[in-house]
């Protein structure tokens, strides 16, 4: 198997042309110290950095890639702690700002007995929601090979306008746009508002990753019915990936489609698994975007991404559980389910 990442290479050593810039939210997840209990039943919580776009940036850096994060934090202990964590993980923090008038977002994340999550958010409003278009570091965004984002930054103004402006700046500079909607229904006014908001920028992306649950939510149909999945396809999309949890993933391009099995691991916490998958995928697209047109290369990359996602479920929290290239290759050598 060809090398897909280099744990020996520091993030700064990667070329500017392989830079992936993630945009959006970073927050503190409070995770019960005992799995399988409700928030009310939990006697204690473990503090963990979270937020999908930030997790993706850290995943890329941990795999030896070049990443940066653009977002806003409260000018508080948690906000400064999170930016320090980005830096410690090799992520460029030039695009990070602090707001003196709003707090860093918090989320209480319940781990059910099967490792799946339930969320309770404290954002009223949080600093990440208050990023404005005028505050964007467009120079950093324009240096990227890939601009990556989710949908939480679309929920409220002024962050929504900042998100759209950043995306348009990236597109006009010829930068690839990557979208992982990361549906978090408690944050939206209604389920339909979430669907409308998520789909409002759908056709701006070059590639999209969705989970099977998100396919079911967005299409209001069976996530395993290929006809249903393909209602999310549009002309101009280069790659649509559907992750199916421990079962692996499915992929669709203009010219080919297929699936790859997942890996059997002892799942402790699924938080960040999708972000580890996405980070691995973006790392490899940034190096060689011919994978959109070469099925053998794409399958190799997605096999690696499946392994990264699986490894991330074996520890609590997202960023502490992110894999290295060595651990992913070790799991691949053991084989799938």
Automatic annotation (TrEMBL):
The keyword ATP-binding applies. Belongs to the carbohydrate kinase PfkB family. Keywords: ATP-binding, Carbohydrate metabolism, Kinase, Nucleotide-binding, Transferase. This is fructokinase. It catalyses: D-fructose + ATP = D-fructose 6-phosphate + ADP + H(+). The keyword Transferase applies. Gene3D superfamilies: 3.40.1190.20. PANTHER family: FRUCTOKINASE-5-RELATED, HEXOKINASE FAMILY MEMBER. It holds the Pfam family PfkB. One of its GO terms (cellular component) is cytosol. It is an enzyme of class 2 (transferase). Its EC number is 2.7.1.4. GO terms for biological process: fructose metabolic process. Residues 19-324 form the Carbohydrate kinase PfkB domain. Pathway: Glycan biosynthesis; starch biosynthesis. The gene is LOC123114033. One of its GO terms (molecular function) is ATP binding.
């Amino acid at each position: 198997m060809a090398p897909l990442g280099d744990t020996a290479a520091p993030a700064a050593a990667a070329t500017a042309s392989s830079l992936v810039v993630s945009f959006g939210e970073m927050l503190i997840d409070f995770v019960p110290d005992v799995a399988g209990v409700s928030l009310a039943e939990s006697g204690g919580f473990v503090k963990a950095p979270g937020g999908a776009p930030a997790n993706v940036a850290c995943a890329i850096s941990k795999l030896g890639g070049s990443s940066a994060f653009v977002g806003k934090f409260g000018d508080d202990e948690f906000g400064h702690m999170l930016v320090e964590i980005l830096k410690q993980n090799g992520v460029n923090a030039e695009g990070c700002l602090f707001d003196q008038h709003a707090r860093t977002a918090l989320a209480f994340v319940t781990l059910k007995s099967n490792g799946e999550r339930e969320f309770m958010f404290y954002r009223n409003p949080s600093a990440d929601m208050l990023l404005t278009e005028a505050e964007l570091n467009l120079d950093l965004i324009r240096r990227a090979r890939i601009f990556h984002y989710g949908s939480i930054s679309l929920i409220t103004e002024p962050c929504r306008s900042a998100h759209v402006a950043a995306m348009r700046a990236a597109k006009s500079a010829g930068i690839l746009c990557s979208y992982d909607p990361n549906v978090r229904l408690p944050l939206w006014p209604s389920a339909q508002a979430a669907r409308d908001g998520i789909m409002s920028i759908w056709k701006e992306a070059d590639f999209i990753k969705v989970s099977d649950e998100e396919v079911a939510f967005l299409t209001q149909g069976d996530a395993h019915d290929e006809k249903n999945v393909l209602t999310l396809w549009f002309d101009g999309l280069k790659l649509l990936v559907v992750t199916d949890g421990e079962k692996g993933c499915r992929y669709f391009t203009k010219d080919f489609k297929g699936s790859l099995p997942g890996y059997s691991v002892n799942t402790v916490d699924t938080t960040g698994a999708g972000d580890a998958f996405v980070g691995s995928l973006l790392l490899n697209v940034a190096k060689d975007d011919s994978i959109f047109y070469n099925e053998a290369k794409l399958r190799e990359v997605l096999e690696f991404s499946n392994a990264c996602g699986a490894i991330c479920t074996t520890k609590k929290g997202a960023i502490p559980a992110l894999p290295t290239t060595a651990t992913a290759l070790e799991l691949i050598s053991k084989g799938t389910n």
